[in-house]
């Protein structure tokens, strides 16, 4: 029996035994409403058709946050996905657009390592932000450079798509290449702009200290003076030009950051410093909702993105929504006025109501690959 099978079997047994089917996690989750409580799913074991169900779970972790027994059903569903792909049960055709996006994102054509002399910290903006807001990436990097000119920039993909699809070998191949390259360049600290990258790097990149760029810009710790707070940076906190009501905003915490309290607070402090008053929506912090993109559920349950994004839009009630995730911004923009926290920090104000086209994203990334950034 392989390691993956043992892990799945262990998690199935644990959830089957410890989940009391109290229903707390079922109430907010369409996937569990369809298939039953985690205990109901776990007791059906590792039969092929049961494993396959896990592709309807976005891996958003809301069940983990609300479970009174402190269980992690999302870990079980990820293991079930891994087991299903290992057994060759999954038709990857519906996920091909995501896999191609990931493959191109880590291709030398779009990759970039800007490693100044003496560099041990790099800014890693991920895929969504460079594709949709290249000016914000340049702006954030300039702010970091003002703090410390040895901070580098790495444009690459963390392989979260393969990770979440349960493609273990493919994930390890892409992530391992990235990790080894960074280590070879003497990188020990990574500043992230994407909560998905933060989660992957923290889980798999034990060689690195991982911090969100929002925390670093807030307290000046990008200077490498760890543990010693400085005054807030004199960043150009510009009001987003297209806000409906410039005084009041809501924050959408991305689901990969649901337990990242430091990042959540940094985003709120920065938005407040930019002159906005924050009204919290019910789904925030640890109990935030997935925007609908999580786990590529759309690949097997079409309509998920529309349904889930509308739930968040209904909570925001027309107020400007701010998020620290480029992918969430793109997903939510058509349903509610949306800005990225980087827009406020850099004054780029690239507020969008429609997602950026696929072609434009690649052109934006190519531009960043070759642009003069410092
Ligand atoms: S991870 Fe999210 S989608 Fe999956 S079961 Fe938990 S709450 Fe539902
Ligand atoms: S909240 Fe926890 S105990 Fe309750 S049904 Fe969900 S996993 Fe089971």
Describe what you observe in this structure.
There is one protein chain. The protein is an alpha/beta fold and 374 residues long. The chain folds into three domains: 3-86, Orthogonal Bundle (Fumarate Reductase Iron-sulfur Protein, Chain B, domain 2); 102-235 and 359-370, 3-Layer(aba) Sandwich (Rossmann fold), CATH 3.40.50; 248-355. It has 18 helices and nine strands. It has helices at 3-18, 30-35, 38-43, 48-53, 62-66, 73-86, 96-105, 128-132, 134-147, 160-165, 168-184, 195-204, 213-219, 261-273, 304-316, 326-332, 341-346, 358-370; strands spanning 112-114, 121-124, 152-155, 189-192, 209-212, 248-252, 277-278, 320-323, 338-340. The protein has a five-stranded mixed β-sheet with strand order 1-3-2-4-5, sandwiched between helices. It has a four-stranded parallel β-sheet with strand order 7-6-8-9, with helices on both faces. Strand 4, helix 12 (195-204) and strand 5 form a beta-alpha-beta unit. The structure holds iron/sulfur cluster (SF4) (2 copies). One iron/sulfur cluster binds next to helix 2, helix 5 and helix 6.
């Amino acid at each position: 029996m392989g390691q993956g099978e043992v892990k799945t079997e262990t998690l199935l047994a644990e959830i089957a035994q410890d989940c009391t089917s109290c229903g707390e996690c079922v109430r907010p989750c369409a996937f569990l409403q369809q298939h039953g409580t985690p205990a109901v799913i776990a007791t059906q074991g590792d039969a092929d058709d049961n494993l396959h169900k896990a592709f309807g779970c976005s891996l958003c972790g809301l069940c983990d946050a609300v479970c009174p027994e402190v269980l992690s059903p999302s870990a079980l569903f990820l293991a079930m996905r891994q087991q299903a792909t290992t057994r060759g049960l999954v038709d990857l055709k519906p996920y091909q657009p995501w896999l191609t996006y990931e493959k191109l994102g880590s291709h030398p054509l779009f990759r970039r390592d800007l490693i100044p002399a003496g560099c041990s910290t790099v800014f890693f903006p991920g895929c969504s932000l460079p594709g949709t807001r290249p000016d914000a990436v340049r702006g954030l990097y300039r702010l970091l450079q003002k703090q410390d000119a040895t901070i580098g920039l790495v444009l690459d993909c963390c392989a979260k798509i393969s990770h979440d699809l349960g493609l273990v070998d493919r994930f390890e191949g892409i992530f391992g290449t990235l990790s080894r390259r960074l280590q070879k360049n003497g990188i020990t600290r990574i500043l992230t702009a994407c909560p998905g990258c933060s989660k992957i790097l923290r889980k798999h990149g034990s060689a690195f200290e991982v911090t969100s760029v929002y925390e670093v810009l807030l307290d000046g710790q990008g200077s490498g003076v760890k543990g010693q707070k400085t005054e807030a940076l004199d960043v150009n906190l510009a009001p987003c030009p297209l806000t409906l009501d410039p005084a009041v905003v809501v924050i959408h915490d991305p689901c990969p950051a649901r337990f990242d309290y430091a990042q959540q607070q940094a985003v709120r402090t920065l938005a407040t410093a930019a002159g906005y008053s924050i009204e919290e929506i019910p789904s925030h912090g640890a109990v935030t909702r997935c925007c609908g993109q999580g786990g590529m559920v759309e690949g097997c349950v079409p309509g998920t993105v529309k349904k889930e994004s509308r739930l968040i839009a209904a909570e925001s009630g027309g107020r400007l929504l701010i998020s620290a995730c480029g992918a969430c911004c793109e997903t939510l923009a058509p349903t509610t006025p949306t800005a990225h926290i980087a827009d406020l920090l850099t004054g780029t104000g690239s507020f969008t109501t429609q997602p950026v086209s696929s072609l434009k994203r690649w052109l934006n990334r190519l531009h960043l690959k070759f642009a003069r950034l410092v």
